[in-house]
Every structure is written in structure tokens, then in C-alpha cells.
Amino acid sequence: MSLRIIFMGTPEFSVPTLRALVDAGHDIAAVYTQPPRPGGRRGLDLQKSPVHQAAELLGLPVLTPLNFKAEEDRAEFKAFNADVAVVVAYGLLLPEAILSGTRLGCYNGHASLLPRWRGAAPIQRAIMAGDTETGMMVMQMEKGLDTGPVALTAHVAIEPNMTAGELHDSLMLAGARLMREAMLKLEDGDLPLTPQAEDGVLYAAKIDKAETRIQFSRSSQDVHNHIRGLSPFPGAWFEMEIGGKPERVKVLATEMASGMGEAGSVLDDALTIACASGAVRLLRLQKAGGKPMLAADFLRGTPVSVGTRLG
């Protein structure tokens, strides 16, 4: 036996789960994803989402409604007569008509240890807060934002220098394995559900551009966490003078370092930067319009004198 599944997801994070369900022999009735968006080098070409592209390669039918406000979209969803919907980073809040539109409901793969970090940016927020552990959870969806009962959990350690991109990839693979296991248990009628704890609720708000500038006036640990939590996207940045004009420079990797000085000042020839307490060493940088590069390569093209203030 296998389950008849509607899969709902959009970014690359969702793709391994879709493939895992196909490999497990489930019947994927339809794949829902966000509509193509403008992209490409000039931002003019419509780009299909990673899930859209993967589904087409797998020969699966793809639907891209803007939302589920139209009655025909809700009716079409229900007409698939699916056993269950699997949701991984779809990008839309689902109305009750969709949550109850399959025989067994909707199950979501969420990248945190709920109830900590409900919401849009759990990977980034966990690192920025200095968490040392996170995980993937399969939860049964309900009307509230990530409030449903939890079925299965996979714990993932956050290493001291791990970036959001690296954690994303670890969770992406862990989530695919976990959802495959969850659907096997659901098929056997043996999937446990445990209500979330009422204590420890935190919300992972979407990253705002206004919070991406590096504040060297914070502790070195906070600066380090901020930078790696925003790497590689959208990227934390500072401003410095290059060629006689101020330019933004993204920092994609750092490490904790020793040193003292005025916050934001360059302490040595290895791009060690003083913070309010302690220091960080900049390891990978990216100039506006340029490619990411190691600090040594950056310095060859853009010398930075000891004592220079970055901000």
C-alpha cells in the first residue's frame, strides 16, 4: 500500500522531501508551488520555483495558484481525493478548506524544535540567538501558525561557526528522512501526535533588511552569530570607503578572535575587527556586484590599514 499525497513546497529546501516521498513509492497526486516569479540576470524572465522544476523532471502535475481564495482552487484541491497533504516551506497560509481537504489532513516539515521559532525564519533566528541545537519536526497542521501537535523530531547540532546556509542543508536532508518515516507510520496507522508545550514559544520573524547591517558595537559573540545567521543570504554587511566612495561589503564567514580596541576598528593585517567586547576575524567577504572571496584575496585587491573603522 502507499499513500495518495498532495505535495506543497517552493524552495530548494523542499525538493529532497518530494524526492524522498516519490522514492518511497507514494502516489503524488499533485504538486503545489508558488507561481513563477521574475528573475534571471535582468529580472525580466519568469523563473519556476525549484519544486516546480523538480516536479516536472519527475513527471508530476504542478499547480501554482496565487492563493486559495477562489472556490474553484479549493474544489480542485479536494477533487484529487488525496489521503494527505505534505507541506514543506510552501509560502502560503492554508485556509481551513485546504487543511481539511484530504482524508488524513496536512503535515508540515518545520525547521525548528517547536514551540521555539515558529514562523518564517527559524534557521536564521536560531543561529542569531546563539542556539546550539535545532532540528526538524513533522507536525499536523491546524489554523494557528506552527501550533499543531508534533509527530516526529530530528535533532541537529548547531556548530560554533556554522552558517545559516550550512544549517539549511543539514536540516533539508534531515527533514526529507523524517517526513519519509512519518508517512510510513501514517500509512500503518502508527503516527504519534503530541501537543506542543505551552512554555518556550518564540516567533521567528522574517528577516528585515534594516537588521542586516553589522553592529560592531555589540559583543563579539553577538556579531559572530549575526553574521553567520545571515550567511549567505541576505548577508550581513558593513560600509567602508573603496576608491574614494563608501561601499557595502558583505561578510559571509567569521571566527571568534582575541583583541581589544574601538568597536569597528581593524586590529591587524588579518582583518580582525574589534567589537564592544572581544573581536571577530573576517574570513569570507563579498563586494557589491562581486563574487565571494577569502579575506586574503579581498585584501590583495582592497588594502585595509590597521586602525581603519568599519561600520
Which secondary-structure class do the elements indicate?
Answer: alpha/beta
If you compute it from the alpha carbons, what radius of gyration comes out, rounded to the nearest whole angstrom? 22 Å
Please provide the count of β strands: 16
Tally of individual helices: 8
Helix content: 25-40%
Mean pLDDT, rounded to whole units?
A: 96
Strand residues, percent: 25-35%
Major beta sheet, strand line-up: 5-2-1-6-7-9-10
The span between the termini is 60 Å
Order of helices and strands: EHEEEHEHEHEEHEEHEHEEEEEH
The description of the largest β-sheet is:
7 strands, mixed
Which residues form runs of ≥5 with pLDDT under 50? Answer: none
Shape: elongated
Could you walk me through the main structural features you see in this protein, from its secondary elements to its overall organization?
- The protein has 311 residues and is of the alpha/beta class.
- It is built from 8 helices and 16 strands.
- A 7-stranded mixed beta sheet has the order 5-2-1-6-7-9-10. Strands 12, 13, 14, 15 and 16 form a 5-stranded antiparallel beta sheet that branches.
- Helix 1 runs parallel beside helix 6 and helix 5 packs antiparallel against helix 7.
- The longest helix has 24 residues.
- The protein starts with a strand and ends in a 10-residue tail after the last helix.
